[in-house]
Design a protein that fits this description.
92 residues, mainly alpha, 62% helix, 434 Repressor (Amino-terminal Domain)
Length: 92
């Protein structure tokens, strides 16, 4: 079984009542990157990040810090809020 499949299984195994924002962030990052026709390698270069780090963020294996989110947003030429789309900050 590949690493991606194992990561997906691990995410599915988490308690369903706990909303994990990392998969949403990672998905938003991937969508924004692909919409701009960028590879993970190219995005990493634009942001001054390691390609492996970008890949792990997309796969929800790493939680990016504020500086990393800022670098990713600049590299993608989007507002940081685009990467957080679909995440709720508080209970409604």
């Amino acid at each position: 079984m590949g690493q991606l499949a194992l990561a997906r299984l691990a995410l599915e195994a988490k308690d369903a009542t706990v909303d994990d924002p990392l998969p949403i962030f990672g998905s938003n990052l991937r969508k924004a990157r692909l919409a701009r026709g960028l590879s993970q390698e190219r995005l990493a270069h634009l942001c001054g990040l390691n390609m492996t780090h970008v890949a792990r963020i997309e796969r929800s294996e790493r939680e990016p810090g504020v500086r990393t989110v800022s670098k990713l947003a600049r590299g993608l030429d989007v507002r940081a809020s685009v990467l957080f789309d679909g995440l709720e900050g508080r209970d409604s």
